[in-house]
Amino acid sequence: MGDLERFTERFSGLQRAYGSTSIVGLREDGKAKVHSFVQRGEPIEELWQKHLEGEEPSLGIIPITDDNTCRWGCIDVDDFALDLKAVNSRLRDRALPLILCRSKSGGAHLFLFTKEYILASLMRIKLTEMAAALGFASHEIFPKQNEILSERGDTGNFLNLPYFGGDSTTRYSLDEKGEVNTLEQFLDYADEKELSEEEVTALKIVGKEVEALKNGPPCLQYLISQGFPQGTRNNGLFNLGIYAKLSDSDNWETKIEEYNREYLSPPLAATEVLTILKQLRTKDYNYKCNDQPISSHCNSGVCKTRKFGISPASAMPSFGSLTKQNSNPPVWFLDVESNRLEMSTEDLQNQTRFQRVCMETIDKMPPKMSERAWQGVIQNLLDNVTIIEVPQDASIEGQFQDLLESFCTDRAQAQTREEILLGKPFTEDGRTFFRLSDLEAYLQRHNFRYFSRPKITARLRDLNAEHSGQNIKGRFVNLWAVPSFNMQSDPFDLPDFSENDTI
Prior knowledge:
Low-confidence stretches: 488-495, 497-503
Helix content: 25-40%
Radius of gyration: 29 Å
Number of helices: 17
Distance between the termini: 40 Å
CATH topology of the largest domain: DNA primase, PRIM domain
């Protein structure tokens, strides 16, 4: 098996779409300015070959498949000033089965490879644990979701592959010693590091076992085992104080002094401890999850299950990536708590509508934030949105037209105009007649809810439909008529089973 075939096999993923990325300049922060989008279609061999030859656009692969499994995952450390060799050493010190590749922006892609396809949810759990242990909790995990809405045209998110340009690449991997691998060496290294599903399930993050704080945030539990970095001790003790108030309301002040002596090296001065005590006496604070040192080691999914972790009821759900399907109107896919939600533009604009979608799909009622804060969240998602280009037949208009055709041709046809009252379409003189309410009911049964009644009527007129009122059985009935679609007239060819054949 050649390098091309091995590379294709190693990064196998979704087969009906792929990512395409071209560098178009540099941003003000020094990172590459790129044009990226999801292209529908199979990532054919030619695309892989061009990638390894360094011919733009480079290839991105979506790791999650239609059955919500994957053979690889990645922690995307988006920091172009990263010391790659230092990170590589941390991987080896913690005996983590990750392979570091330099990303196009100079950051790190930390890959986990498996021998067979495993559930994307399992891959995400393990990578989330490793990211928290490494201090990369705020960075993205691929696959970005546990499942994708394949039947709705969703594709998930792609990751730009390493070795763009083959052995001449800047997207190389590092070996155990921190030396640059050739493409062949990388492929051999990946073969050595790949894990079975059983090995992934049993994977434990290397670190000192800590009994203390076992009912508290995992970030604090990890930090007391490893030590609080210099410059973060005050915030660290403040968060430990929040835990103390929640877990031991009668003796929490004494607990803070104990935590200072036991877990901070060197301990804070008495005056600094007193300041923290005064702050915590004034009111009940929530954990400062967005501040260092705990933000880099956050594992919110586990934290919400802990007795003295963050409250699931009060916590805003974590948002992942936003994907826009370029149809008319657009369809949006948003990751909320690792759940993939389909939304309209109005659902993203309006918090009440957003809450309704969450309630209907994931049985959660997110708390409202200020309108300004909400706009900031949405704008940040839009700044990093993934675009899915769609062909006409995959667009919303295309779906509507396909359903209209099936409504007019696939159903039991009315034999007389009177049978329209039974909900059946009736074809006569090259036009098919029906009631709008019957079409709406058909669309609802097929989970098509993108068009309001005015939008449906507008689209019907675009398709040369005409509206009229007719008397049927003494009743005035509003009817629509569209040019009739071609209907199958010839019978299907059926296999001939003789009496002696077995089935």
